Amino acid sequence: MSTYFRTTQTGFQMPALIYPTNSLAPVISQTTIEYHYGKHLQAYVDNLNKYIADSDYENMTLREIVAQAPPGPLFNNAGQVLNHSLYFEQFTPAPPGNNRPTGNLKEFIHFDFGSFDIFKRKMEDAAASFFGSGWIWLTQEESGKLNISGYKNGDNPIRHRLTPLFGIDLWEHAYYLDYQNRRAEHVHRLWNIVDWEMIESRLDI
Ligand code: MN
Fold it and tell me: Is residue 19 part of a domain?
């Protein structure tokens, strides 16, 4: 979570994609990455830069914009830039065998959910019951406690003073080319490519 929070003279930059576009297949296809990252996220970044130009928001960080912007197009696009920056960097094409949280993250998940399997089921249940476009996030409260929360459209945990740890994009553009209406199957298969070390690095301990 570093470079994309910074503005430059030309505005916010696209966050780097840290793996080849074809490397998350078959969980997420090359075509989906090319559209999702290359077209959808690019559009959010371009719109954000358009809306902040010559405004008080021009010199704010992305987090500040997301926290302070009134509801509307600026907030929607800033929220989606933040959501997707976190989203794309949380996957790995080469997960270890038996891919699961370790270390502090494992301890937190066991303490707040009981087990990794219960946590996964709760994330999948939250995704399955979410209506429309939005996100399911594993979040952390200031107290340290982990929670699962759903957010509509471009809303996100930072707007609600929570730390975003792991996000599932429930917009159809995230899965429809690969899974059509089978959103639950898409969500279930994401566990195969989660970079738990990256998620743990977001934890406040
Ligand atoms: Mn998306």
Answer: no
Per the structure, the complete domain to which residue 135 belongs is given by: 103-201
Rounded distance from Cα 80 to ligand 1 centre (Å): 7
Query: Rounded to the nearest whole angstrom, what is the distance from the C-alpha of residue 173 to the centroid of ligand 1?
Result: 6
Indicate whether 95 belongs to any domain.
no
Residue 193 lies in a domain: yes
In a domain, 169, yes or no: yes
Q: Give the three-state DSSP class for 37.
A: helix
What is the pTM assigned to this prediction? 0.94
121 three-state secondary structure: helix
- The CA 10 to ligand 1 mean position distance, Å, reads 23
Give residue 175 CA to ligand 1 midpoint distance, Å.
Answer: 9
The pLDDT, as a whole number, for residue 8 is 56
Cα 12 off chain centre by: 17
Could you read off the pLDDT of 112-164 as tens digits, one per residue? 999 999 999 999 999 999 999 999 999 999 999 999 999 999 999 999 999 99
Q: In what order do the strands lie in the sheet with 146-152?
A: 146-152, 134-140, 163-169
* Helix, coil or strand: residue 72: coil
Query: In this structure, what CATH number is given to the domain that contains residue 174?
Result: 3.55.40.20
On the question of pLDDT at 31 being above 80, the answer is yes
**pLDDT at residue 2 is higher than 60:** no
